[in-house]
Amino acid sequence: MAQEDLRLLDGGKGRETEVPAHPETPTWIVNKAFDLVSEVAFNSLDAYMLFCKEEKLPHSYLLGLDILITGIADPKGKKVTDIRPTLLEGPCCNSYPACPNIDSYRLYKRSILDGQNPDMVEYPMHPAKIRDALVSAFKAAWTAKGNHDDPVVGVITRPYAESEEETAHNLIIEGCREAGLKTVRVTPDENPKVRNGKLVVGGTPVDVCYRRIERIHMPQFYGLALGSKIINETPNTLFINPWKVDDLRSKTIEEKVFRRYEKATGKTVSRPRTLLGPEITPDSVRELMGTGGYALKEWNSTGGKGVYLHTNMRLIKKIYDKLYLKYDGRHMVLVDDIDDDLKKFGAFSQDAAIQQMRIIDARDLRPGVRLVYDSRINVLYDAVKNRWNIISGISRCVPCGEEVTNGNSLLTNISSGAEVATLVLGRTEEIRKPMRFGPLLTALMNGETECSI
User: Which CATH number fits domain 126-240: 1.10.443.10, 3.40.50.1760, 3.90.230.10, 1.10.3660.10?
Assistant: First the structure.
């Protein structure tokens, strides 16, 4: 029997590179922390669904949420306060279809091989069952539309340098076929067509389509005419991630969605304080500097593109030195002269959001090296029961410390050089010795909202 492939790959077919991983140090989000993270996730999803309903938009069935354990600096820069799970990128600006079936499972198996015990918790969805859950969701989405037969499933992509690995595309096809679903691969090589409002491959109409390609790449890879038809003239093919969701890839839109939800329900979505449009002034951004800094997020800033972090070194240097040991990066601006940095906001007219840059938790990897980490959580919509379920996650992390050449950029995404670790989500009867937590997460699990670093 061939050895199971547990590599984590990034890049298109023939250009794959292996992403460094840390199976020896899983990110544990358990018990109280899991409950709080779940609350943030579901509130943000409720906001997204309300927006889709009011705007008469088709919603996605599969999304990813970036939820981090963060805090802010106290006025003297001696401790971290307001510690809570914080949504940094959520359902509205998240246009790229999440891939829960590959990395989560492979990280889980790699942790076991490394001697870890990721089964110390009761998962919301066990890593070994993620692909089955995804296939079941395809069926449920089709059934909820009033159909009684099994859907024909298409998996559409085009491997390219910036995409995730070709393996993910093929494993979804494999999983659907193992479940007895007729499944077709969709790339330009299969010469797809559009007929009678459906995507058609080799004469076979596609009922449900899972896509691993963004709208902006369709004309580039499928040609302008065909790409436009697939996006705009296929109302009878149910896309698990409809093309309209790509139009929402904007922090400014997402913030408006959350504000609308909070006004309508009285509930809150835990996120950094965010400024939009005329709210962005030198004085308002200065207030954010008073808690540590700010992040400038351009309209299309998903995946770390167009995100620039400005850190108030006069306030936060002691905390950063102790928490991260070393920090720099392509997307960081270490600000000493605040007045000079804020001049650009005197007449700011860019389509962007300004967010409070909150302090991200870090845990020890080994002496002199820390891991800044996030929780990338994948959620799947059950169309029969009309509810979202957490099904998987990975932890993207950035090593920082004295021996790291390029220090912590605080951007925990692969395109900015982040690595990955196993994310273990769920509940456990007891906290055991192998579980390592950073200082902010430790405080959160102890019911505390502040800590000294």
Answer: 3.40.50.1760
